[in-house]
């Protein structure tokens, strides 16, 4: 028996890439997850957030809904990324307190960390500088929810915490070239190039930036573990502290997608944050959580999923 058994848990974004895995993890520990869809409720509207909580009456909330995208999407829509993410979180935390919700966990973002923070990122370094400019509106919107969660804990006794997973990937990710992150963008580019007989793909930036990646299933398990057992005001990183350069990542994905052509780099496009990797030692110590899916295995699974799920693409004349 877990402390969540029989508990009604609202998962915002529960039909999304991460949210579906959180719902599955809650099912495994005998909780009663409920979800809302953006087509039904606009969580940027305070009255609709209040209506959701009144209707579903959850004991706990996991806020996984977010407007997300890669560097291109963040550069094109900075206002939307700031407003939508800030508004959803602000209204949900406030109305959760008003509704008497026992516990709320906010899913933050590694984009909140300063551009030049020491690596691996420590939770106490969150405030040591400004985020990388291309995703600063999104990162700062999420960073403000850390402040709000701590403020509502201090004044109202709301048991609110923020978890910060590093970059997520896995089957079911967004492969739309306009909004995808680096792993699905590379997989799509290389699979399509191979299938169309192209001998070159061109990727953004120099390839010298580094990233850490966390399989979405591991992230969901960590978030549910935090919902059960993490009751502190400080944010909590989820990750293993393992970096890989974008160039090395591209070579790994080329091998897994069987793309044998040339990989070029468009250096007129930004790299984003120079380095990105988190220190996950507190999650290991406090929750006993650590990732279980290695990067190569997770990438191979994601490539297989994409190749099975994509619509057939005919070769043009």
Molecular structure report:
- By secondary structure, the protein is of the alpha/beta class.
- Helices cover 42% and strands 15% of the residues.
- The strands form four sheets. Strands 2-1-3-4-5-10 form a six-stranded parallel β-sheet, with helices on both faces. Strands 6-9 form a two-stranded parallel ribbon.
- Helix 1 crosses helix 7 (216-229).
- The longest helix is centred in the N-terminal third of the chain and has 22 residues, at 78-99.
- The chain is globular, with a radius of gyration of 20 Å.
- Mean pLDDT is 94; it is low at 313-317.
Report the CATH topology name. Answer: Rossmann fold
Enumerate how many helices there are, as a single number: 10
The helicity comes to: 40-55%
Secondary structure category: alpha/beta
Estimated share of beta-strand residues:
15-25%
Radius of gyration, taken over Cα atoms and rounded to an integer in Å = 20 Å
Q: What is the compact description of this entry?
A:
With 317 residues, the protein is α/β, with parallel strands linked by helices. It contains ten helices and twelve strands. The protein is globular.
Defining traits:
disordered C terminus; alpha/beta; Rossmann fold; six-stranded parallel β-sheet; 317 residues; 10 helices; two-stranded parallel sheet; 15% strand; globular
Question: Topology of this structure?
Answer:
Blueprint: E1 8-12, H1 17-28, E2 32-36, H2 46-56, E3 60-63, H3 71-76, H4 78-99, E4 103-107, H5 136-156, E5 159-165, E6 167-169, H6 182-195, E7 200-204, E8 210-211, E9 213-215, H7 216-229, E10 236-238, E11 244-245, H8 246-257, E12 262-266, H9 281-287, H10 295-309
């Amino acid at each position: 028996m877990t402390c969540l058994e029989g508990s009604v848990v609202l998962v915002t974004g529960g039909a999304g890439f991460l949210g579906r895995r959180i719902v599955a993890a809650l099912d495994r520990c005998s909780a009663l997850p409920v979800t809302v869809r953006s087509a039904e409720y606009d969580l940027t509207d305070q009255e609709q957030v209040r209506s959701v909580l009144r209707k579903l009456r959850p004991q706990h909330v996991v806020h996984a809904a977010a407007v997300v995208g890669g560097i291109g999407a963040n550069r094109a829509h900075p206002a939307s990324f700031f407003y939508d993410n800030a508004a959803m979180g602000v209204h949900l935390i406030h109305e959760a307190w008003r509704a008497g919700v026992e516990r709320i966990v906010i899913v933050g973002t590694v984009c909140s960390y300063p551009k030049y923070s020491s690596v691996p990122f420590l939770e106490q370094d969150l405030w040591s500088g400004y985020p990388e400019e291309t995703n600063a509106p999104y990162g700062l919107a999420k960073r403000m929810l850390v402040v709000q969660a701590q403020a509502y804990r201090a004044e109202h006794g709301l048991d609110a915490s923020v978890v910060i997973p590093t970059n997520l990937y896995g089957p079911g990710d967004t492969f739309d070239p306009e909004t995808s992150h680096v792993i699905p963008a590379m997989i799509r580019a290389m699979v399509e190039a191979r299938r169309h007989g192209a001998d070159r793909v061109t990727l953004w930036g120099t390839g010298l930036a580094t990233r850490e990646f966390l399989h979405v299933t591991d992230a969901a398990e960590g978030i549910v573990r935090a919902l059960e057992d993490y009751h502190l005001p400080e944010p909590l990183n989820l990750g293993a502290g393992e970096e890989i350069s974008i160039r090395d990542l591209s070579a790994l994905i080329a091998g897994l997608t069987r793309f044998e052509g040339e990989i070029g780099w468009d250096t007129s496009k930004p790299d984003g944050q120079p380095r990105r990797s988190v220190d996950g030692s507190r999650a290991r110590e406090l929750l006993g959580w650590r990732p279980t899916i290695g990067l190569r295995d997770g990438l191979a699974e994601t490539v297989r999923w994409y190749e099975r799920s994509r619509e057939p693409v005919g070769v043009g004349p």
